[in-house]
Amino acid sequence: MSYLRAFSTLGCPQANLEECFALAERFGLDALEIRALAGTVDLPAYFAATYGSPEAMAEKLDEGSAGMRRIRIAALGTSFRLIGATAKEREAFLDFVPWAEALGVRWLRVFDGGKSADEGELAEAVATVRWWRAERSRRRLTTDLMVETHDALFKGSAIARFVEAAPGTAILWDSHHTWKKGREDPLTTWARVAGAIVHVHVKDSVSIPSARHPFSYTLPGGGEFPAGPLMAALRGEFAGVVSLEWERLWHPTLPPLEDALRAAAERGWW
């Protein structure tokens, strides 16, 4: 068993899609996680302006390089949150659907939202999942959502309670987040909720405050994140996507994504 390696385009937010594919091909990666392109996270608007229609975009990619045909788009990253979403935000989320369907993208990334994962927040999250499942069934969609452990679900116990309340919901596990904010050994979190995880975010940091966090991101292998044991477990047990989330869009002083990918490769980090 072996996972697929990818990166999030948060790391190269000014690049276009063709440039992202070329970078992934240069480093021998398997997939892309599309979050930002050409300086925007409004992917439906960018796709429409660049390609015209979902069908035209799919045709363009099919006619692209061998790398573009080999490397899959593992997910489209939305800004939608299960907890606290408005009707307008639901409609904006649904704008991603035609593009995901035409491109054969399995997952639309959404956030958990909330803060505490208390009963009220979990009930709201479950209600939003049910709304989506009704939409998905009515439209006979193949794409589905996966929920990133970003806000309320920053501990393994909260993730487990959510999965129990909304069985069958796919999880994007931000392994750095549960380790740093939740103070959990990644192997402990993995053992608890592995069955629901389809996608894993990885990154590295040191315990030095930065402008936005009580820690500072570092090149892979240069920080304190216990990647070695986690990657060993994933290599033996996980067939999903492991994605380097190099957050250069939010932290523009970080080195280029290419430097991070090179460091990960040279240090055998993943």
Helix content: 40-55%
- Report the sheet with the most strands, covering strand number, pairing sense and barrel closure: 8 strands, parallel, barrel
Query: What's the total count of β strands?
Result: 10
Instruction: Please write the CATH class name.
Output: Alpha Beta
Straight-line distance between termini = 15 Å
Quick summary:
With 270 residues, the protein is of the alpha/beta class.
How would you characterize this protein structure?
It is a single chain. The protein is of the alpha/beta class. It is built from 12 helices and 10 strands. The strands form 2 sheets. The protein has an 8-stranded parallel barrel with strand order 1-2-3-4-5-6-7-10, surrounded by 4 helices. A two-stranded antiparallel sheet has the order 8-9. α2 (43-51) packs across α3, α3 (54-62) packs parallel to α6 (97-103) and α8 packs parallel to α10 (186-193). The mean pLDDT is 97.
Q: Layout of helices and strands, plus pairs?
A:
Elements: E1 4-8, H1 17-26, E2 31-34, H2 43-51, H3 54-62, H4 66-70, E3 72-81, H5 87-94, H6 97-103, E4 107-111, H7 119-139, E5 144-148, H8 156-165, E6 170-174, H9 175-180, H10 186-193, E7 197-202, E8 204-206, E9 216-218, H11 227-237, E10 241-244, H12 257-266
Parallel strand pairs: 1-2, 1-10, 2-3, 3-4, 4-5, 5-6, 6-7, 7-10
Antiparallel strand pairs: 8-9
